[in-house]
Amino acid sequence: MQIADELAAIRRRISEITSGAAGGAEFQELVSAKRYDAQPAQAPADASAASRTSRGEIGRIVAAAAARRNLDPALVDAVIENESGFDERAVSSAGAQGLMQLMPETAAGLGVRDPYDARQNVDGGTRYLRSLLDRFGSVSLALAAYNAGPNAVERFGGVPPYAQTREYVRRVLSSYGRRSQVGNAATTESSLAPDSMLP
Fold first, then answer.
1. At residue 39, does pLDDT exceed 90?
2. Are 73 and 62 within 8 A, CB to CB?
3. What letters, b where the CB count within 10 A reaches 16 and e where it falls short, cover 98-125?
4. Distance between CA atoms of 123 and 102, rounded to whole angstroms?
5. CA distance 118 to 86
6. Strand, coil or helix: what is 102?
7. Closest by alpha carbon to 86, among 180, 195, 197, 175?
8. Angle 189-190-194 (CA atoms, 0-180°, nearest 5)?
9. pTM metric for this prediction
10. DSSP state letter for 51
11. How many Cβ atoms from other residues are within 10 Å of residue 97's Cβ?
12. % helix / strand / coil in the chain, to the nearest 5?
């Protein structure tokens, strides 16, 4: 019940932000950064491997998006691994879509018209992740906000006491630690708070 309440609160907040009713200037600036012309899409019915984006191409998409947002590509890969398992057609039970599992309202607010398009999804997801890192100043808190919503992180003054969120943060940080290019300041410095790279 608590998760359903949190989800409803997140949806209300996104609606307020995207309508400009709650001081959403920063979010609107992010949203206006890029728009796509494709029409909104449903999960493709054809699940054939031939029509899927290859892991190599996903890697190139991640590298380019991470560079644009000044993020460590290893962090983006860790989020994608834990959100969708690199399945661009993934849909969660809550309705999150694509590689970075964007909720429809979040995707729309970020200008992502086709959440199953790998480029659009990763572009929107990295913009959102960058905004959370800037807002909370910590990888752990940004990941908690990515999972449970920024309002939950603010309400609890840290990682919310939800078992699912705490496990999510632990798993992503573990994946990130395995993938990270530690010592490569060009990619890691702006993504990491000094005390939050690893648990």
1. no
2. yes
3. bbbbbbebbbbbbbbbbbbbbbbbbbbb
4. 11
5. 10
6. strand
7. 175
8. 60
9. 0.69
10. G
11. 25
12. 60, 0, 40
